[in-house]
């Protein structure tokens, strides 16, 4: 009970912290919307040439674009969030202080990142999706149950995204300068989440592998849950996400134990 | 406040000094980057790979279709290459000018004002990131491939048009970077707005104009003149009609448009710098 209250408080402060920067949020909404328009037009051209490409019709493909823009900041598909901050604390040794505290390191960062994501999904996600829905013919479902399942899928997407970024950040314990790793993490996330193109459009075996990787749980699966196009149904999609979330969080936990045992904090 | 009223005779000298000072600071950052060669090589590779993703997406698109908006893969690659190299050059030379907002917030802008070097030179050279060559190399490779595949008749005039297009494009994107920086003197936290015009602009120009709505094409021709970076001259080189049906002479107007942009940008930058109020509340 105490643990729950504590983590809720951490999440709330994460929410408040990002909610402070209103101008930056508005600027982000503007940029997401502009990118949404650019991508939407290229998708219209692509689906005009090949209707039903990747199993989507044109309005489903456009919905995919705008869901991507809505989730870009929330699910940290381009990296960022707690990742830079945590990495900086590992680099300069402040993480030693974090380890003294009577709270769990991984849960602490997870809670704060969930708070950030909650704000960014509301502050930076809703407006671009609304603009997209006004400007284009989107395939948005009317059933509240589908939206509820979508919300759950988005929440799981944030958890999987967190677990991935936590693993990358932890590598900072061994590599003093993890900027290269951060770049790699962003690269993998952008490409294999479906942000550039839906993974269902990727050809052949490459596409099949891409759809099994954890990054597909951060955008491809939530989009398919909303569109009702996940093979095997939405429940299978949610189970896929939950499975990756558990595996990656456990891996993060194991790596964290190894890191704190073996590595001498820099400066000490 | 730092510039005061420019005296006609001193303007040219100031400009030369500004460029020289920029060169000094850049050389310093390059030297410090080269102290960590392995790290630099990794960052260059990362930059190359990240910027290559956009083209990977285009290649995946063309694995499913033969044409996009009526343009073939080599034609789209030509647009991609020219947009990417022009943007890469401006990003390398002026990309760090987007840090104005951060400097205003943390108060380090004041330091720049006290030094006898134009503020823009200092800002643009600060943290000069040589790894941004990655985008230029990547764009040049795609452009080279496109030129080989397109089988165009490369007369000297056409070669000149290609070079003037890339250089003017770099100047136009450079103006967007500096305008974005100047804008942050007024709206400090809104630095992300300029991403829509810089990164958004280069993504837009990678695709043929026929893909986009006419209003959008009009907007990037007459309001933010990004169409002059590559669309108009490239359509001429590819032997395509432009969707707006503009007079053909405009295909050669990129250098003039770039100069006009520089003049406007200079005025806005000065206005922004004068509007600067130090933090310290």
From TrEMBL, chain A:
Question: Which residue ranges run through the membrane?
Answer: 21-44, 64-82, 121-140, 152-176, 183-206, 234-252
Q: Does the keyword Metal-binding apply?
A: no
Listed A to Z, the keywords are: Membrane, Transmembrane, Transmembrane helix
Recorded superkingdom: Bacteria
Statement: the UniProt record of this protein carries the keyword Transmembrane? yes
Do you know which PANTHER family this protein is assigned to?
A: INTEGRAL MEMBRANE PROTEIN, SLR1174 PROTEIN-RELATED
Full protein name:
ABC-2 family transporter protein
Q: Which organism is it from?
A: Streptomyces smyrnaeus
């Amino acid at each position: 009970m105490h643990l729950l209250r504590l983590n809720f408080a951490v999440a709330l402060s994460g929410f408040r912290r990002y909610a402070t920067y209103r101008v930056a949020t508005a600027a982000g909404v503007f940029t997401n919307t502009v990118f949404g328009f650019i991508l939407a037009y290229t998708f219209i051209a692509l689906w005009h040439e090949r209707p039903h490409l990747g199993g989507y019709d044109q309005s489903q493909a456009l919905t995919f674009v705008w869901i991507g823009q809505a989730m870009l900041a929330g699910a940290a598909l381009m990296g960022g969030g707690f990742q830079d901050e945590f990495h900086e604390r590992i680099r300069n040794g402040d993480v030693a202080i974090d380890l003294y505290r009577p709270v769990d390191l991984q849960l602490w960062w997870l809670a704060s990142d969930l708070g950030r994501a909650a704000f960014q999904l509301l502050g930076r996600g809703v407006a671009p999706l609304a603009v997209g829905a006004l400007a284009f013919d989107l395939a948005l479902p009317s059933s509240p149950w589908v939206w509820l399942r979508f919300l759950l899928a988005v929440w799981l997407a944030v958890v999987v995204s967190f677990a991935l970024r936590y693993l990358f950040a932890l590598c900072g314990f061994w590599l003093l300068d993890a900027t290269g790793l951060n770049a790699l993490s962003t690269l993998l996330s952008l490409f294999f989440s479906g942000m550039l193109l839906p993974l269902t459009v990727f050809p052949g075996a490459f596409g099949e592998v891409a759809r099994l990787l954890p990054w597909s749980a951060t955008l491809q699966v939530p989009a398919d849950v909303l569109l009702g196009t996940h093979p095997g149904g939405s429940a299978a999609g949610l189970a896929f996400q939950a499975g990756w979330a558990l595996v990656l969080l456990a891996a993060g936990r194991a790596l964290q134990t190894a890191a704190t045992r073996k590595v001498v904090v820099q400066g000490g | 406040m730092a510039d005061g009223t420019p005296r006609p005779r001193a303007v040219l000298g100031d400009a030369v000094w500004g460029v020289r000072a920029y060169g000094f600071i850049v050389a310093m950052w390059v030297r410090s980057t080269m102290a960590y060669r392995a790290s630099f090589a990794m960052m260059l590779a990362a930059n190359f790979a990240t910027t290559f993703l956009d083209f990977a997406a285009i290649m995946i698109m063309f694995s499913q279709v033969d044409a996009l908006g009526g343009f073939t893969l080599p034609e789209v690659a030509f647009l991609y290459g020219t947009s990417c190299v022009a943007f890469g050059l401006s990003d390398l030379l002026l990309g760090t000018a987007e840090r104005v907002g951060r400097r205003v917030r943390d108060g380090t802008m004041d330091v720049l004002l006290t030094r006898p070097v134009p503020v823009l030179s200092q800002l643009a050279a600060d943290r000069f990131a040589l790894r941004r060559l990655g985008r230029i190399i990547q764009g040049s490779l795609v452009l080279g491939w496109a030129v080989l595949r397109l089988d165009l008749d490369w007369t000297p005039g056409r070669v000149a048009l290609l070079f003037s297009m890339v250089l003017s494009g770099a100047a136009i994107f450079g103006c967007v970077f500096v305008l974005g920086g100047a804008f942050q003197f007024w709206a400090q936290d809104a630095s992300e707005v300029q991403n829509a015009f810089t990164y958004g602009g280069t993504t837009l120009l990678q695709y043929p104009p026929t893909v986009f709505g006419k209003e959008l094409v009009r907007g990037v021709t007459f309001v933010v003149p990004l169409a002059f970076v590559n669309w108009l001259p490239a359509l001429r080189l590819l032997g395509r009609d432009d969707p707006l049906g503009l007079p053909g002479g405009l295909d050669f107007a990129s250098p003039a448009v770039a100069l006009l942009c520089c003049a406007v940008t200079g005025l806005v930058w000065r206005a922004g710098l004068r509007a600067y109020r130090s933090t310290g509340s």
